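FAQ: What does the model actually see?

It sees only this:
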Amino acid sequence: MNRFTDREDAAKQLTEKIKVKASIITIVLAMLRGGVPLGLTIADEFNIPLDVILAKKIGHPMNSEIAIGAMAEGGEPLMNDDKHVILVDDGIATGHTMFAAIESVRSKKSLSISVAVPIIPEDTFKALEKVVDNNYYVQIPEAFLGSVSAYYDNFPQFDSYNVQHLLGK
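And it is asked to produce this:
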């Protein structure tokens, strides 16, 4: 198992896996909060726009780290059907928040949807293959360690201040 030094290291490795066609209008949607540093790197590398998407897990009442569901932002459609969307996060454990984000993006009628994450469990990867056009990843471990943070040497939590700072707001 390879570990990532931090989100910057993961972003660099992930960017090497992503394919962006110049002929298709593409946008990166970074999952708040941990996906923002990776999304910035990808958007900069391919010179494409970046925005954020809010998807939140619904934690189990006895253990908030266990997701029993998720929901994503709604609102009015912001994209037209000639954009390709790359959803980015710093990793996936259960996939609940990513599936909620996918549904939110799908409701806005994008041309295609890709998911880009450095680490993902095999069962979640297989489930995503059925609902997105492309999956970009760095690692699919044989036995998932239970949390995304287990694959990083340095994995600080991002709060709203960190996100605003990274986005220059």
